[in-house]
Amino acid sequence: MPTLKDIRIRLKGIKSTQQVTKAMKMVAAAKLRRAQDRAIQARPYAGKLKEMLASLSSKVDTSVNPLLSPREEVSNVLVILVTSDRGLCGGFNTNIIKAAQRVIHEDYAALHAKGGVTMICAGTKGAEFFRKRGYKLAAGYPGVFQNLSFDSAREIADTASKMYLSGEVDRVVLVYNEFKSVLAPNLRTEQLLPITPEEGDAKTASSEYLYEPSPAAIIDELVPKHLNTQVWRVMLESNAAEQAARMAAMDSATENAKELIRLLNISYNRARQAAITKELSEIVAGADALKQG
């Protein structure tokens, strides 16, 4: 049974931990507000750019731009995984890493067995996990979320497009956490290359536009912007989802510490009461012995 001193030491440690988790929750909440605003602001532009590209690609032959042309046979796939740089965010990294593993081992199991799956990891956690397990990494971007910038997204998009154009890969897939709400992160898998309009995009893009100079020329200009914007949007979404997960995790840790402190206080009071009762019993027994003597 722990002594009063042991319980006091443990109480002190848990109270210190509670202060840390409470402070981290407040910091994450402040960062979440900024990250959420940036992610939400990026969505309309990225969506409109995607819609316009869908409209243009429906009016021209996809062969006008190699990034629009799907390969007849997919022999190599590039998976771009977006994780966080730091931990203490609940199951954020674990869930997205598992999602990436499902993509590799289920969707592209045959290609993976032949060494046809390559990865780009944005974020320290994903890069460390897959590098230690011997996966084929084309590039890693540890620490990218410490100073998140559009240049980082452009670099990742450029690397992916160069690998696709050179024939090194035949498809590029994004795996990331999309921010929905604090309590509901959304694991997403999207195809980045080749650029193929989704069914919803095709319906939305049915409006008639007048293009100058020509759809083909505009496509050449829009495709790099589209790739950069989509990767940037994904990184903003992931950053917001990370802060939401960290805030929720720290809130849960703070509440758990509060409950543990309550239970330890009960144990401490019981132990102190038992010690006092024992001392009183010894005093009474001593007094009785003196009377009898």
Show the helix and strand layout.
Layout (H helix, E strand, L loop, with lengths): L3 H54 L19 E6 L9 H16 L1 H5 L3 E6 L1 H9 L4 E5 L8 H16 L5 E8 L7 E8 L5 H6 L10 H78 L1
Helix pairs in contact: 1-7, 5-7
What structural category arises from helix and sheet content? alpha/beta
How many domains make up the 3D coordinates? 2
Low-confidence stretches: none
- How far is the first residue's CA from the last residue's CA? 36 Å
Provide the CATH architecture of the largest domain: 3-Layer(aba) Sandwich
Please describe what this structure looks like.
This protein is of the alpha/beta class. It folds into 2 domains: 4-20 and 251-287, ATP synthase, gamma subunit, helix hairpin domain (Helix Hairpins), CATH 1.10.287; 24-248, 3-Layer(aba) Sandwich (Pyruvate Kinase, Chain: A, domain 1), CATH 3.40.1380.10. 63% of the residues lie in helices and 11% in strands. It has helices at 4-57, 92-107, 109-113, 124-132, 150-165, 199-204, 215-292; strands at 77-82, 117-122, 137-141, 171-178, 186-193. The protein has a 5-stranded mixed beta sheet with strand order 3-2-1-4-5, with helices on both faces. Strand 2, helix 4 and strand 3 (137-141) form a beta-alpha-beta unit. Helix 1 runs antiparallel to helix 7 (215-292) and helix 5 (150-165) crosses helix 7 (215-292). The chain starts with a helix and ends with a helix. The relative contact order is 0.18.
